[in-house]
Write a structure and sequence with these properties.
242 residues, Leucine-rich repeat, LRR (right-handed beta-alpha superhelix), two-stranded antiparallel sheet, globular
Amino acid sequence: MEKAGSSRMHDCQTHDVSPKPWMLDSSEVNDQPKNVLDFTSDITKRLNITRPGKRLRKKDYEKDYLAKFLPLKFYFRNTPFTSSTAHALGQILPRLCGPVKELDLCRCNLNLDSLRIICGGISKLNYKMEFLDVGGNELGDEEVKIISVILNKVEGLELMACGISATGLKVLCGEIKELETPMKFLDLRGNYLGDEEVKLISGILNKVVKLGPRGCAISKDRKQILHEELKRLGLPKSTIDF
């Protein structure tokens, strides 16, 4: 499915950051991290610095200071997440100075624990996140339940090939129905969804501007049912991208 703003650049902006006394050493202070490896070595190190025989935890004001220099787009695609990286990201997200435009965690080998930590940080955001991509992670229904809790914090959600079945979809759709403002898009491509789940999908058509169930086992007849429901609701046919 073509996502709104798909042409946006993933590269982070670069800032000059002057060394501060609380940082480990000046060699750490160059440009903002461009990928998860820099993020792990740079941000995690500053949040929890380990020295011989001593572990120093950053104080809240130090974390707030650090957050001022971070980008509002995070591109981690195809890079496995460690527990320390998940913790660092979960801590830093609520401290950012503006709305997160993009958090790309596609194919990052996320598991239940790392997803819970990251979603915990997202739940504390002061602004809505424009785009969250967790596609390509074999999340399953339990992980989808965790994501469902933060739907009021994201405008667009990519869940392509996440191993979602009817159980997870039911929870997801239940939370979407409760949203005050419709999501801009929801991508469900390549999940374990078929004709039996069409009723669930039809129940959220007025809560999603763009819905992508392409690659799911939905028959032609059931697709027609969805199109008829769109017509009944007065919504454009383009709402659903098959």
